[in-house]
Amino acid sequence: MKIETIREAAGRLAGHARRTPLLSSPFLDEIAGRRVLVKPECLQHTGSFKYRGARNTLAAMAPERRARGVIAFSSGNHAQGVALSAREFGVPAVIIMPSDAPALKIANTRALGAEVVLYDRASEDRDEIGARLAGARGLTLVRPFDEPLVIAGQGTVGLEIAEDAAALGLDAAAVLVPCGGGGLTSGIATALAAEAPGLRVHPVEPEGFDDVKRSLIAGEIQRNTRLSGSICDAIITPAPGDLTWPIIRRLCGAGIAVSEDEALMAMAAAFTRLKIVIEPGGAVALAAALYHGSEIEGEAVIAVASGGNVDAALFRMALERFG
Amino acid sequence: MKIETIREAAGRLAGHARRTPLLSSPFLDEIAGRRVLVKPECLQHTGSFKYRGARNTLAAMAPERRARGVIAFSSGNHAQGVALSAREFGVPAVIIMPSDAPALKIANTRALGAEVVLYDRASEDRDEIGARLAGARGLTLVRPFDEPLVIAGQGTVGLEIAEDAAALGLDAAAVLVPCGGGGLTSGIATALAAEAPGLRVHPVEPEGFDDVKRSLIAGEIQRNTRLSGSICDAIITPAPGDLTWPIIRRLCGAGIAVSEDEALMAMAAAFTRLKIVIEPGGAVALAAALYHGSEIEGEAVIAVASGGNVDAALFRMALERFG
């Protein structure tokens, strides 16, 4: 990934993706024992950074190919990013979702104009359904992370962090990024290596799903043994991607794994101190900043809050336990 | 109030107050039946717009006078705005709060470095305590709304709205503003009259506390009969101010009154669709945009979400009932 590819993405996203700020609170600084800055991508269109990569991918497609439509597999944030981007270009989007996906996410994806195709996880083959539909209709697959245009789109988060950190006079900081397949992490790491080399990315994952942390220790790709059973569903993937892993290995510092309770505590802290709504998977970086200080070096930390698509019942539970 | 006074405030606040964006969601547009843009001042430092007026007032004071310190009466958002501003200038702040104010707000105000003086609402005279302390220590009173520098600071919200609306190509819209004493409303109205005359401000209040709406109908100041018993505590005041009322009468369109349930519904909608946390008093303008469309003209509405300092228990209740 070249920095120029991310700069091109920024050009395509200008006037479309929301330019998110860096938020802060003296109360968070006190908990962390250092300066804490939060990049609230929960405020991005569709409630997560995923819109950036999806919109960049569609914007870069040849118009004739794009006009035939796009297809994606997702039960969550990527689905909504692709659906909104397709609607903005006036082209069809087919999203293949498991039939047991949350009803609200299915409804939202449909409301954004996408055709939702449900499949049964136990008896049907998602990839076969996708390949058949794509072939029959000439749809282009938009991958969730292992795709250069997607990584470049997510990397624009890093360009904004570099710009805002410079304006604050910050030339050294740990940058904590919630990490699933690694699209956001590798994109930000590439942007910062070029624009703000004193800002070092650390991937953050939930305990029990820390494939990237273990891969960094082992020096080669490690896989998760489980793929469900976490409230941090937005960032649960089998392993880092073929494109994202070499970037992460080359540019990132050590990974950090946080507990589910720490993610819920970070959600409550963001509610009280920043007035933003974060989902569990989007809260792991802030959780690491607040509760894993001994694994971080330096006087400042920037935590990406990658998404806010959380059900009201789960959010209420976080506030009840930790608010 | 001259527009130059607000521009001077913007100069003093540059690099200190957070520049908040305009947020939107196609789902909110659908509820309202028109385009909805939200100005999230809940993301401002201390969780409300009050920081702008307080910081501007302290920044404009003569340094020798400021060094003796400031004093304010407040049980909520103004207290935190004054406390943080005073801490930034390294000067003392005394905040006089009722002893039955929420423990969290007292704790936050103290944590921001202010000296909190509690008084008993039933048996003690707040003004007498304030006058005595101010006289003995040479403290300067920072009024919550009826003060030109405070109005000018809040008016910078209007400058930002004008700038962002122009960038979106919006030259006509209703601008709905939560209204207590009228500092924010009159400041924004002054800024927009000069910078974006097609954007017309409408004050929004809770039912039963709609002194400004009734004042606009009567053409002279009307008072509230009650001063407590609303969850919208942040915007409950006896009547519009001597300075704010003439501005509101001259520049604002009709007032709108919303129910407490509508405010709670707007809080839940902002949680689900915008990923921001709003307090009931800060949600009344969004409530008017979503549920009082027949009282608004035009194809676009801009709602100011003025603050987010809400207790977790009340927020959970809003989500439980309407999330």
UniProtKB/TrEMBL annotation, chains A, B:
Cofactors: pyridoxal 5'-phosphate
Gene3D superfamilies given in the database record: 3.40.50.1100
InterPro entries referenced in this protein's UniProt entry, alphabetically: TrpB-like_PALP (IPR001926), TrpB-like_PALP_sf (IPR036052)
Record's keyword annotation contains Calcium: no
Keyword Transferase on entry: no
Segments forming domain Tryptophan synthase beta chain-like PALP: 15-307
Keyword line: Pyridoxal phosphate
This protein's name: Serine/threonine dehydratase
